[in-house]
């Protein structure tokens, strides 16, 4: 079942309220997305933990309903330098 | 003894570099697995692969083992490193080269 990009963004923001979410539909089929998620809450977390936080936000849809989500996570630049 | 979690644990601990993937290194069956293989080959890494499509218990079990919902999954010296996105980031930053060098 394809998912709308706005649904993905909504779920991530519901769990990570300060997240800046950028989503690209890679294939135009509503099934292959790339997401970039930037949040202060990622500070001090490993990459694995950051990705897991996004997977948790998506409540088990990744790997199932949402077949392909290319994921990039980051802490806002201003946070890093402080 | 034969439950999937112990089998996976055994595979992860007995191989310095192992990639759980869909398909084989020669014939990956998914774009993400293909990308993971391309990164490892580019770095000249020595690695083992496990084709999860051949083993439904491992296919499901590996997701529980690492609490990670997708495949491929790379393990180096018993540690879960990440999926293909993290591999690409670590390749670009040079971290993956360092990890592999330490393991080989």
General description of the model:
Chain A has 82 residues and is α+β, with helices and mostly antiparallel strands. Chain A has one domain (5-81): 2-Layer Sandwich (GMP Synthetase, Chain A, domain 3). Chain A has helices spanning 5-15, 47-57, 77-81; strands spanning 20-25, 32-38, 68-74. Chain A is globular, with a radius of gyration of 12 Å. Chain B has one domain (4-95): Glutaredoxin. Helix content of chain B is 51%, strand content 16%. Chain B has five helices and four strands; from the N terminus they run H-E-H-E-H-E-E-H-H. Chain B is globular, with a radius of gyration of 13 Å. The mean pLDDT of chain B is 95. Chain A binds chain B through residues 47-48, 51-52, 55, 60, 62-64, 68-72, and chain B through 31-32, 63, 67-71, 80-83, 85-86, 89-90.
CATH superfamily of chain A: BolA-like
Given the structure, what is the number of helices of chain A?
3
Can you identify the CATH class of chain B? Alpha Beta
Instruction: Categorize the overall geometry of chain B.
Output: globular
Biggest interface = A-B, 14 and 16 residues
**Radius of gyration of chain A, taken over Cα atoms and rounded to an integer in Å:** 12 Å
- Which CATH top level class of chain A fits? Alpha Beta
Tell me the strand order in the biggest sheet of chain B. 2-1-3-4
Helix content of chain A: 25-40%
Strand order of the largest sheet of chain A: 1-2-3
Quick synopsis:
The complex is a heterodimer of chains A (82) and B (104). Chain A has 82 residues and is of the alpha+beta class. Chain A has 3 helices and 3 strands.
Topology, pairings included?
The complex is a heterodimer of chains A (82) and B (104).
Chain A: H1 5-15, E1 20-25, E2 32-38, H2 47-57, E3 68-74, H3 77-81
Chain B: H1 4-14, E1 17-21, H2 31-42, E2 48-51, H3 56-66, E3 73-76, E4 79-82, H4 84-93, H5 95-103
Parallel strand pairs in B: 1-2
Antiparallel strand pairs in B: 1-3, 3-4
């Amino acid at each position: 079942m394809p998912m709308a990009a706005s649904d993905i963004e909504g779920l991530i923001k519901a769990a990570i309220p300060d997240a800046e979410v950028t989503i690209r539909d890679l294939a135009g089929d509503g099934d292959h997305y790339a997401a970039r998620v930037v949040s202060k809450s990622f500070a001090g977390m490993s990459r694995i933990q950051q990705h897991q936080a996004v997977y948790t936000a998506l409540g088990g849809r990744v790997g199932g309903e949402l077949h392909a989500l290319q994921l990039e996570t980051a802490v806002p630049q201003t946070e890093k330098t402080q | 003894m034969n439950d999937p979690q112990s089998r996976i644990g055994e595979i992860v601990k007995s191989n310095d570099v192992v990639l759980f993937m869909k398909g084989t290194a020669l014939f990956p069956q998914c774009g993400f697995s293909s990308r993971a293989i391309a990164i490892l080959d580019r770095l000249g890494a020595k690695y083992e692969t496990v084709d999860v499509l051949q083993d439904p218990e491992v296919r499901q079990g590996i997701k529980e083992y690492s609490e990670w919902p997708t495949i491929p999954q790379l393990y180096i010296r018993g540690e879960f490193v990440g999926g293909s996105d993290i591999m690409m980031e670590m390749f670009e930053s040079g971290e993956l080269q360092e990890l592999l060098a330490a393991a080989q």
